[in-house]
Amino acid sequence: MPSSNGRLRASKTKPNYLLSILSVAMVLFMLGLFGLIVLHLNSLADFLKEKVEVIVELRDGSSEEDIAIVKDMVQEEKMVKQQTVRHVGKEEALKIMREDFAGATDIENLGLNPLYDAIIFNVNARHMDSRQLALLSDKLKDNDIVQAVFYEEKLVGSIVSNLRKMAFLALGLSLLFIFIAMALINNTIKLALYSNRFLIKNMELVGASWSFIRRPYIRKGVINGIYSGILATLGLGIILLLVWQQMPGFNIAAEWLTILLLMLSVIGIGALVSWWSTRRNVNRYLKMRLDDLY
Description:
Distance between the termini: 28 Å
Order of helices and strands: HHHEHEHHEHEHHHH
Shape: rod-shaped
Number of helices: 11
Helix content: 55-70%
Oligomer: single chain
Radius of gyration: 31 Å
Strand content: 5-15%
Structural class: alpha+beta
Strand order of the largest sheet: 2-3-1-4
């Protein structure tokens, strides 16, 4: 019976490190996720730029030879992504429109095909700006076979103009998020150590030095911080895998070194903040009077 009571008292004074590890891991995961967004902001902008399609509409009755001439003309441009150049016939375009606007009776009842053959392509991100696209459009329109050139000019302009704003905003939010993460981790460790406040004070009363009292708690805190960082990086790895599957054109693997450094930083932050918070809170209980612990 006494041994049972002893185990019960020990369990009551043992900090709940499992909840602490999971809570810190969630905070580190959010911090790492935000870091991934900041680091890949330019890559994401380039990815979105290269998704903008340029449509070169050809005149009705263009022959296969005429279409090949325009297609070769487009492929000769350095700013064009060569692997994206394709010809879409008027019948294929009508089929796509019918699929996109299924149930629209006006399209279903069309007696004639009002669409035209078109050459569709994407542009490399570094060349995606309104001025260069306008020059390319004018050059293509000089060809008698080309009837019109279409692209989302406003979308291109908004992507380029908002990139700097997003970068400054992301920098400010990242600094704010680091302070929030430190505060949350500190409160989580503070709650975990709360049940051990009397044991910490009693060790001091029997003559133990502060460094001797702190040592096992700091060691445990650093190890738990590393565990939390590892859990957070596993979550980030799952997110990266999902992004890679859903956005195959977004080349994440090319920045593997940056991603690896970020994940190591997350683990390092978990260990460092846990060390700082554990040391701070143990010192806090050592400085308190015994009556104040109640």
